[in-house]
Amino acid sequence: MTLRRWLALASVAALANGELVQVPNLQLPSTAAAHQKAVVDLFNVSYTAYKSVSFREQVVMYSLVNRKYAWSHDDLLPVTKSYSDGLDGWGATVSDALDTMWLMGFHDWFNEAVDYVATVDFSLSKTNSAVSLFETTIRHVGGLLSAYELSGQNQRYSALVKKAEQVAQQMTYAFVGNNAIPYGNVNFADHTPVSGLSSIATAGTLTLEWNRLSLYTGNDTYRQLAEKSVQHVINMPKVLPGMPTELIDPSTGKPSGTYVSWGSGSDSYYEYLIKYPRLTNTNDNSYTDAWLLAVDSSIKVLLKYSTVGNWAYLADYDGHNILHVGSHLACFYGGNWILGGKLTNNDTIYDLGLQLTDACWNTYASTATGIGPEGFAYISSDGSYTGNSPPTPDQLLFYNTHGYYITASDYILRPEVLESNFYAWRATGDTKYLDNAVSVIQSFQQYLPTTVAYTGINDVNNKMSSKSNDMPSFWFGEVLKYLYLTFDDPNNISLDNYVFNTECHPFKTPTAKNIYGSVA
Ligand SMILES: *[C@@H]1O[C@H](CO)[C@@H](O)[C@H](O)[C@H]1NC(C)=O
Ligand SMILES: *[C@@H]1O[C@H](CO)[C@@H](O)[C@H](O)[C@H]1NC(C)=O
Ligand SMILES: *[C@@H]1O[C@H](CO)[C@@H](O)[C@H](O)[C@H]1NC(C)=O
Ligand SMILES: *[C@@H]1O[C@H](CO)[C@@H](O)[C@H](O)[C@H]1NC(C)=O
């Protein structure tokens, strides 16, 4: 039996049996409520700052109107108390924060946010910029539809579907002619894509959101485009079995280069391969098979253990050499392997998911602030090549204690390590994952505050680090939601009833076998 055929049989059996992801009857310790409250407070302060300023500050600024720092804009700039519009200015924070507000019980803010969204014209960029297919899909389409679903598909909130459809309708212009692969960016004003290469992350990260959009609008075009795109990637030539290069030319559908990675540019292609069949219960095994093949190659070629500490990492591969690098972004892989290992009933993959999660957590546990860095590297038995300069004496010193060294020292409010930690808690019930989350909350409270909210820091290994000046929307959509859910009743948003899009927006999984079975 070929590996491919064997994998196919294994995956059918597992998904049909409906393997459980979470430990049954998992209970929270009594201390959880206080930690959850601390997360709600972080959200409360952050969103209050995004919305407006206090009366006292208004007086200081000699302003009689209710001056807003960032309301309706994409990001709050928490140091300069201003805003930025890097994602077309529709209010990415609002779309990303909606479902978190619903779950945390900020229902007045939720209503206010829906009423705001209803007024936004998503058919034109407010900044006259090209629109990113990837970012707009995961934040706006994902955020709006998840909020609609969680709040009970209520008529009161039907604008959420209308607006998701309005923005997606414009994004369909990323698909030119009969091309299977969309361009990465579209000019909404004249319906033309921006020429250039696309990535497998863009081509493979539409299925969850566009499937739900088709379900709620009754227009199947979105599901068909998303599936056509990822099917092209699944079937195109590979660098390693199951692992394509990260770049594709949308005009030809041909791969460009030979770079393979679980990090930026490729990450959520792999993530969605196992999540999409879970969302749909489809009988089509191609998604799960492609995921299993990629994981198999990753175990054979990319899995590396550090010579210090024996920590597990997934390296990058440029077609010739292994690059011993890691990133905060790629640290979603632990949670993804935990989920996929459970769904396919494969203990090897599941155990590796836990090892990868623990190694990513070690990047937090080892720094002066208890927060992990944006980029890192390591040395394994096959060497230390990173494609960049070799480690400095200081980096080697750090490596010899911690089993990794820092190559990009900033923290920009990313979620992935906490995401994997959340999966590990729900799948194992081991309270060490709750302890990790408690420690992060304390680090956030200690090292991230500005006068009005929280912000990133430039050096996670320096308690006196200078601060950056940005609160990206994923702080509201992902970081605070994963932390909140870590301390929530495990029956709420159970991993056995929901899948999360790559921006942490949960979608209910159907119990029916049919792709358009009820979502109830
Ligand atoms: C949010 O903060 C405000 C001001 O401190 C407080 O009055 C309110 O109760 C908080 N809301 C929640 C849900 O914690
Ligand atoms: C379905 O959506 C596509 C893409 O936005 C659009 O071109 C088409 O007109 C829609 N079909 C209907 C029946 O609304
Ligand atoms: C689990 O997956 C690994 C990696 O692909 C494979 O080698 C192993 O045979 C699988 N085990 C089972 C029980 O399916
Ligand atoms: C979540 O769990 C809490 C505590 O068990 C419960 O009070 C609450 O209603 C649940 N929320 C949802 C949305 O199910």
TrEMBL record:
Q: So what does this thing catalyse?
A: N(4)-(alpha-D-Man-(1->2)-alpha-D-Man-(1->2)-alpha-D-Man-(1->3)-[alpha-D-Man-(1->3)-[alpha-D-Man-(1->2)-alpha-D-Man-(1->6)]-alpha-D-Man-(1->6)]-beta-D-Man-(1->4)-beta-D-GlcNAc-(1->4)-beta-D-GlcNAc)-L-asparaginyl-[protein] (N-glucan mannose isomer 8A1,2,3B1,3) + 3 H2O = N(4)-(alpha-D-Man-(1->3)-[alpha-D-Man-(1->3)-[alpha-D-Man-(1->6)]-alpha-D-Man-(1->6)]-beta-D-Man-(1->4)-beta-D-GlcNAc-(1->4)-beta-D-GlcNAc)-L-asparaginyl-[protein] (N-glucan mannose isomer 5A1,2) + 3 beta-D-mannose; N(4)-(alpha-D-Man-(1->2)-alpha-D-Man-(1->2)-alpha-D-Man-(1->3)-[alpha-D-Man-(1->2)-alpha-D-Man-(1->3)-[alpha-D-Man-(1->2)-alpha-D-Man-(1->6)]-alpha-D-Man-(1->6)]-beta-D-Man-(1->4)-beta-D-GlcNAc-(1->4)-beta-D-GlcNAc)-L-asparaginyl-[protein] (N-glucan mannose isomer 9A1,2,3B1,2,3) + 4 H2O = N(4)-(alpha-D-Man-(1->3)-[alpha-D-Man-(1->3)-[alpha-D-Man-(1->6)]-alpha-D-Man-(1->6)]-beta-D-Man-(1->4)-beta-D-GlcNAc-(1->4)-beta-D-GlcNAc)-L-asparaginyl-[protein] (N-glucan mannose isomer 5A1,2) + 4 beta-D-mannose
Annotated keywords: Calcium, Disulfide bond, Glycoprotein, Glycosidase, Hydrolase, Metal-binding, Signal
Can you cite a GO biological process for this protein? carbohydrate metabolic process
Residues binding Ca(2+) are 502
Where does the source fall among the domains of life? Eukaryota
Q: In which pathway does it act?
A: Protein modification; protein glycosylation
Enzyme Commission code(s) on record: 3.2.1.-
**Molecular function as annotated in GO:** calcium ion binding; mannosyl-oligosaccharide 1,2-alpha-mannosidase activity
Q: Which residues form the signal peptide?
A: 1-18
Cystine pairs annotated here are 331-360
Q: Which residues form the active site?
A: 135 (proton donor), 267, 374 (proton donor), 416
- Mind telling me which GO cellular component terms the entry cites? endoplasmic reticulum; membrane
Cofactors: Ca(2+)
Q: Its family?
A: Belongs to the glycosyl hydrolase 47 family.
Protein name (record): alpha-1,2-Mannosidase
From what organism does this protein derive? Boletus reticuloceps
Its taxonomic placement starts with: Eukaryota, Fungi, Dikarya, Basidiomycota, Agaricomycotina
